[in-house]
C-alpha cells in the first residue's frame, strides 16, 4: 500500500512563499487586477482538482498519474529556470538578449 501525502505538501505549494513571490513578480509585469483574477481562477481550479481527486485517480490509474507527474515536473523546472534567468537579467547580473 502506497501512502500519498497530498495535503501537507500541496498546501504550502498552493499558498506558500513561492506563490506570494510569483504574485509580486507578476504584478510588476501585468496590471494587479489581472494577477488577482488569475490567482483566483487558479485557486478555483486547484480546489476543483482536490475535490475531484478520487475520480481522477480512478480514471487515470497509477501509470497515468506517474506520467502526468513527470511531465508537469519537467514543465515546472522549465518555468523555474526561466524565472531565475529573468530575475538575474532584471537585477543586472546577466544580460539576456532576445
What can you tell me about this protein's structure?
The protein is 84% helix and 0% strand. It is an all-alpha fold. The model has no long low-confidence stretch (mean pLDDT 82).
Please give the structural blueprint.
Elements: H1 6-15, H2 17-29, H3 32-51, H4 53-91
Largest sheet: none
**Strand elements, count:** 0
Principal-axis shape? flat
Portion in beta strands: under 5%
List SSEs in N-to-C order. Answer: HHHH
- State the low-pLDDT regions, or none: none
Give the helix tally.
Answer: 4
Which class of secondary structure composition applies to the elements? Answer: mainly alpha
* Rg over C-alpha atoms, rounded to the nearest angstrom: 17 Å
Overall pLDDT level: 82
Which bin fits the share of residues in helices? over 70%
Through-space gap between termini: 50 Å
List descriptors.
single chain, mainly alpha, 98 residues
Provide a brief overview of the structure:
This protein is an all-alpha fold.
Amino acid at each position: 500500500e502506497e501512502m500519498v501525502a497530498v495535503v501537507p505538501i500541496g498546501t504550502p505549494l498552493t499558498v506558500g512563499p513561492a506563490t506570494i513571490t510569483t504574485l509580486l513578480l507578476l504584478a510588476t509585469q501585468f496590471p494587479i487586477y489581472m494577477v488577482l483574477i488569475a490567482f483566483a481562477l487558479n485557486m478555483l481550479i486547484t480546489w476543483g482538482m482536490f475535490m475531484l481527486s478520487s475520480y481522477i485517480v480512478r480514471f487515470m490509474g497509477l501509470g497515468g498519474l506517474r506520467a502526468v507527474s513527470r511531465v508537469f515536473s519537467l514543465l515546472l523546472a522549465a518555468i523555474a529556470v526561466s524565472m531565475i534567468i529573468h530575475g538575474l537579467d532584471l537585477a543586472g547580473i546577466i544580460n539576456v538578449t532576445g
